[in-house]
Write a structure and sequence with these properties.
The protein has helices at about 45-55, 75-85, 90-115; strands spanning about 60-65, 70-75. By secondary structure, it is mainly α. The longest helix has 23 residues, at about 90-115. It is elongated and about 85 Å long.
Length: about 120
């Protein structure tokens, strides 16, 4: 049993929902001409985020195996899980492990030479 509110009549010049004509938005012109500054929305702190990620990635956890519990980092547990799936025949895990091993071996070979290898790729426009 609520009462309906009566809407105001349109015969007034200034009032609720009707600012003075000189203060109204102009047709064809944005109310926010400069817009939102780039990077202001969902701004991340890359350094803090990377530190948080690294700390979590190398955090020690307890993994339970058939022989008992083993303490290892989350990174090691992830790699172990991927390698077990690869050994069981999971194609995606096999491909991922091979790519990771190739990348690690290439990085190791670069470090043995003493100088990093810089690859330059020319792209024609």
């Amino acid at each position: 049993m609520s009462k309906k509110r009566s809407l105001p009549e349109d015969n007034y010049e200034v009032g609720y929902g009707k600012p003075p004509k000189e203060n109204r938005f102009l047709k064809g012109r944005s109310g926010n001409p400069k817009g939102r500054p780039n990077g202001s929305k969902n701004k991340t702190r890359p350094r803090r985020l990377m530190n948080l990620l690294k700390n979590e990635f190398y955090r020690e956890i307890k993994v339970y195996e058939e022989t008992g519990s083993v303490d290892m980092s989350i990174a090691q547990a992830i790699f172990r899980s991927i390698s077990v799936k690869a050994a069981k025949g999971d194609y995606r895990s096999q491909k991922l492990m091979l790519d990771l091993v190739r990348t690690a071996e290439a990085d190791e070979a670069d470090l043995e030479d003493g100088l990093p290898i810089i690859t330059v790729k020319f792209v024609s426009s």
